[in-house]
Design goal:
By secondary structure, this protein is of the alpha+beta class. The chain is built from 1 helix and 8 strands; from the N terminus they run H-E-E-E-E-E-E-E-E. The chain has a single domain, classed as Beta Barrel (Lipocalin). It has an 8-stranded antiparallel beta barrel with strand order 1-2-3-4-5-6-7-8. The longest helix is centred in the first third of the chain and has 21 residues.
Length: 131
Amino acid sequence: MSFATKTLTLLMLLATTAMAQAAEPARPVTGTWTTDFGTVRLIEDRQGGVRGSYDTDDGRITGKIENDVMDGFWVETASDYTCETLKMGSPYWGRIRFELNSARTGWTGIWSYCDYEYVEGNVWNGSRAPR
């Protein structure tokens, strides 16, 4: 086999491998997560919608993932702050923004009360819980 044939074969193999890796779907966030606010259980649908729960004040999460960023809301049955409007039937809610790492094994997150701006220090980080 000539040098040119070997080189062409290698380039085709590398291109095929790169295309296969690029075509892999993102790992869903469905599962159990260990977070700054205890255990969070999430379910992701095929359109990137996410819903879930956590133990603090019967907490619920709802959101949407785009480009490995989940924007959404947390909602509880009680909180340190009461919002003027209801979200999912509760006056105790706020915004969340979770930025997933590329392997989707963890996130760095922030949160706010109601629809207010995010405040430095309001972190909500998470990592996949061991199976």
